Amino acid sequence: MAGGRWTAGIRFPRKQCCLSPTRAPVQPDRPDPFLRHGVHLKESIAMSAYPSEPRRRRRPARPAGRLPGAVAARRLPRRLLAAVAVLLGLSGLAVPAAAATRGSIADEYVALGDSFAAGPLIFPQENFVPCFRSAVNYPHLVAKALGAKIFRDVTCSGATTAHILTTRQAGLPIQLDAVSARTSLVTLTIGANDIGLAGLGLSCFNALPEPAGVSCKDTQTAGGADRGAQKVDSAAPLIAAALDAIHAKAPRARILVTSYTDYIQPDGCYPIQPVWARDASYIQGLVDRLARVTERVAGSHHAEFVDLITPAEGHDGCQLTQNWANVVVPGTTLGLVPLHPTALGERNFARLVVAGLAGARS
Predict the structure, then answer these.
(1) Pairing of strands 150-153, 108-113
(2) Spatial distance between the Cα atoms of 264 and 274, rounded to a whole number of angstroms
(3) Could you give the C-alpha distances from 271 to 144, 179, 208, 264, 276, in angstroms and in order?
(4) To which H or E segment does residue 45 belong?
(5) What pLDDT does residue 175 have?
(6) Of 150, 118, 154, 109, residue with least CA distance to 136
(7) What is the per-residue pLDDT across 216-239, written as a single tens digit (0 to 9) for each?
(8) Is there a contact between 362 and 352 (Cβ–Cβ < 8 Å)?
(9) What pLDDT, in 10s, does the model give residues 298-309?
(10) Are 105 and 145 in contact (CB under 8 A)?
């Protein structure tokens, strides 16, 4: 066969042997006859004769300190991120993953507090007498959103800090008994009943316009001293004692303490709600003052404060089709009790609590 010899169907030049372990140097201006598509012909033959597993591509080196996406995701609290997605998804809020809390937050959740947290006559009710606790109050909704493994809601209408710490309410155990060393999350709404804030609010109702009635502001500030403000300030050591006791029983728990909410707009909306203008501003001012007291106490007693007043602006009891809380005349948002939340309010309070857990802003 002129010009070369054939082996295994492949023509090799006479000057080079296919069995030679080395190849003669190829001149730069002449193509290497053994190269086909970047693979040497002898390597191609060897690979065909002795098939092996395909080579795996080597991944580029990862910069030090960076986690692959899958590992980083596993280290985030999935229940909490899912809860934020459920409760915040429709509101357009973005919760940064880096701000999320540890995944164990949902291991054991205990809800403490008064009727604001219990949700009286918001149906369906989990309990009627004595606590009037709703099955769709904000603690229940938070527990569902977080996927809490263990959840105990002992909120009760009419509760004071004494019912949390030392005194049975209607024969029930003190609320603190529900907290254990394994508790990972506690929410608390308390203080209004300690200072008689609901009763003071009811004294502000006047069915007739001025001067046919009595102003609650005038009554509370007669003589130059604001007795309503003094009562609010007296709640500080009571709330502090409750927080300290919770920490003592659950040293690893996160504790979130909430404010109450925006019940009535500045100067009210008489006659839609039967509260005179100056009384409306006065009673909401006391609610706002109690929130500031609670926030200060939370900050000095290793608890987190959740503001339920500012986000509720525009959803007060004067807005009868979108109110988060009632004044006297109920709206259409499924709430019956004066000066208490509606079903719409409880849903939004749950959203704000979950946002607080994740560090989001509302």
Answers:
(1) parallel
(2) 11
(3) 39, 45, 9, 13, 8
(4) helix 41-49
(5) 98
(6) 118
(7) 999 999 999 999 999 999 999 999
(8) yes
(9) 999 999 999 999
(10) no
**Per-residue pLDDT, 137:** 98
Contact 360, 88 (CB under 8 A): yes
State the Cα–Cα distance between residues 253 and 109, nearest whole angstrom.
9
Cα–Cα dist 265/327, whole Å: 11
Q: Determine phi and psi for 31, rounding to 5 degrees.
A: -65, 145
Closest CA to 239 of 300, 148, 152, 151: 300
Q: How far apart are CA 261 and CA 315, in angstroms?
A: 10
Chain-centroid distance of CA 79 in Å reads 11
What is the structure's pLDDT at 271? 96
Token readout for 224 is 């130059």
- Dist CA 229 CA 200 (whole Å): 11
Strand 5-7 relative to strand 10-12, pairing: antiparallel
Check residue 246 and give its pLDDT: 98
* Whether pTM exceeds 0.90: no
Q: Cis omega before residue 338 (within 30°)?
A: no
Distance CA 95, CA 268 (A): 35
Residues lower than pLDDT 70 in the chain: 1-103, 360-362
3-class DSSP state of 192: coil
pLDDT value of residue 359: 81
The catalytic residues are: 115, 340
Q: How many residues does the chain have?
A: 362
Among 118, 170, 111, smallest CA distance to 143 is for 111
Pick from 191, 302, 292, 188: which is nearest to 244 by CA?
Answer: 302
Question: Beta 108-113 vs 185-189: how paired, if at all?
Answer: parallel
- pLDDT confidence of residue 30: 52
How far apart CA 255 and CA 243 sit, in angstroms, is 8
HEC string of 244-268? Answer: HHHHHHCCCCEEEEECCCCCCCCCC
- Expressed in percent and rounded to 5, the helix, strand and coil fractions of the chain are 40, 10, 50
What Cα–Cα distance (Å) separates residue 53 from each residue in 38, 46, 50? Answer: 20, 14, 10
